[in-house]
């Protein structure tokens, strides 16, 4: 065998293996599994466990047993593989060797009340809170559930939320953007500033800062977009899991 070709093959193998470990992505039969950071153990509905030598072998095993496998938990110390279909916090912290892999880049903690149906349908990990409260209290409430008020940075997200609101008979709800810190500078819940491209999610001619005192934002079903309003208003709210 040509030694130069062997050297290239070894280099490619090392490079691919390094990428695999760093990216935490298992690519199996065109199905991608992404490593998800675990706060607590996450698979509540699994159909078997077995011994596997690696996370790649674990993913192959899970897909061979069930092509609709959505998640697997692999313990690289004990070499144990759990295949699962549903994620739910158990309240138990994972050991140093346990890693969760999911076909979704978002982990939705059902134990905290986040909605699995919305996650499966829209890819949004949401909790719909129908209690009426002001913006500050809504923010604090989402934080206690390891989340934040939902960010509506695209028309696609806006349309998904409007569909959910229609189905759940919600007229308006708090979302995660305000200009409380600096008038006219709207900041999303993740700290990023509203861009001109994102203005499309607002109702036409909004935000208008009516009476110079509207600093918070709701999404309105009737007008199909975001609108600035008084932070002291009482509204339902939409929490988005922050993972």
Structure description:
- The protein has 243 residues and is an alpha+beta fold.
- It has helices at 3-23, 55-65, 116-122, 135-144, 155-167; strands at residues 25-28, 31-36, 43-51, 71-75, 80-87, 98-102, 126-133, 147-149, 172-178, 187-188, 216-220, 225-229, 235-241.
- It has two domains: 34-102, Hepatocyte Growth Factor, CATH 3.50.4; 111-241, Mannose-Binding Protein A, subunit A (Mannose-Binding Protein A, Chain A, Roll), CATH 3.10.100.
- It has five helices and 13 strands.
- The longest helix has 21 residues, at 3-23.
- The radius of gyration is 22 Å and the shape is elongated.
- The N and C termini lie far apart (49 Å).
- The model is unreliable at 1-27 (pLDDT under 50).
- Top-tier CATH class of the largest domain: Alpha Beta
Basic shape: elongated
Strand residues, percent: 25-35%
User: Can you count the beta strands?
Assistant: 13
The structure class reads alpha+beta
CATH topology call of the largest domain: Mannose-Binding Protein A, Chain A
Distance between the termini: 49 Å
- Parts with pLDDT < 50 across at least 5 consecutive residues: 1-27
Pfam families: Lectin_C
Keywords: Disulfide bond, Signal
Protein name: C-type lectin domain-containing protein
Domain Apple: 27-105
């Amino acid at each position: 065998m040509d030694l130069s070709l062997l050297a290239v093959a070894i280099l490619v193998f090392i490079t691919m293996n390094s990428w695999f470990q760093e990216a935490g992505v298992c690519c199996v039969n065109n199905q991608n599994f992404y490593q998800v950071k675990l706060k607590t153990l996450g698979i509540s509905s699994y159909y078997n466990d077995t011994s596997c030598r690696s996370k790649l072998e674990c993913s192959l095993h899970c897909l061979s047993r069930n092509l609709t496998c959505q998640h697997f938990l692999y313990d690289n110390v004990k070499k144990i593989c759990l295949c699962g279909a549903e994620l739910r916090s158990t309240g138990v912290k994972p050991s140093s060797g346990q890693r969760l892999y999911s076909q979704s880049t978002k982990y939705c903690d059902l134990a905290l009340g986040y909605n699995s149906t919305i996650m499966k349908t829209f890819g949004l990990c949401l909790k719909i809170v129908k209690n009426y409260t002001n913006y500050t209290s809504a923010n604090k409430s989402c934080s206690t559930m390891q989340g934040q008020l939902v960010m509506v940075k695209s028309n696609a997200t806006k349309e998904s939320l409007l569909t959910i609101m229609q189905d759940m008979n919600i007229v308006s709800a708090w979302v995660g953007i305000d200009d409380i810190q600096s008038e006219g500078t709207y900041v999303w819940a993740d700290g990023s500033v509203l861009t001109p491209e994102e203005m499309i999610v607002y109702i036409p001619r909004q935000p208008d800062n009516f009476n110079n005192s509207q600093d918070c934002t709701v999404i309105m079903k009737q007008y199909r977009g975001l609108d600035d309003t008084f932070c002291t208003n009482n509204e339902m709210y939409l929490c988005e899991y922050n993972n």
